[in-house]
Amino acid sequence: MATTDSGTVSDLPAPTRSRMVIGWLLVLLLAALTTSLLGALDAGLGGVLGGIALVLSYHLIVRRLILRRNAVPRRVKVCYTLASIALAVSAVYASPVRLVAFGKEGVGSIAYQDRQKGSHGTYVQCYVQDPDGNVDQLPSGGACPHPDGTPVTMVYTDDGIGGPLLGTKSSYTHEVAIWGAGALTGCSLMVAAAVITGRRFAT
Questions:
Q1: Is there a contact between 162 and 139 (Cβ–Cβ < 8 Å)?
Q2: Is 126 a residue whose pLDDT tops 90?
């Protein structure tokens, strides 16, 4: 027997300790994989798929697997919502973090820019040549900041995923800090939700 969120007795079975431990570990794992990991490859992908995964995790793992359809404590809802927001924000900044951590810094050059057609019309895309001679487009659209052939410092990887980004590694300290704060806050709030769940339904 368990109690509902309003304090009344429910006929639903109370969550077991093993369900709570396994369930919350699964939530944390999926949250990390679908936000920071996917975000490191593509910010939009991490934000969208990460958000979808967090919503599905709440309904399928938290409500069904962990709580066995018992009412979700209000404080768990608040912690989970705030954690999801923090993790979604961190996903947007995961790509620069990957480049700073694993990429190389060097001087390349502006290659060219062209006009491309997208779902919302045409836009200008800038391409740069990295120090190894590879030509890749900048992750964000827009005109090149300098004329073709202009030397520019950039952070890049051999696979070209998530970059290259113009500037030095140190110029992305702000992005790294936001990612770290978002990821740490999100994971901490998820742990807090797990602790609250354990105390509420401890048997």
A1: yes
A2: yes
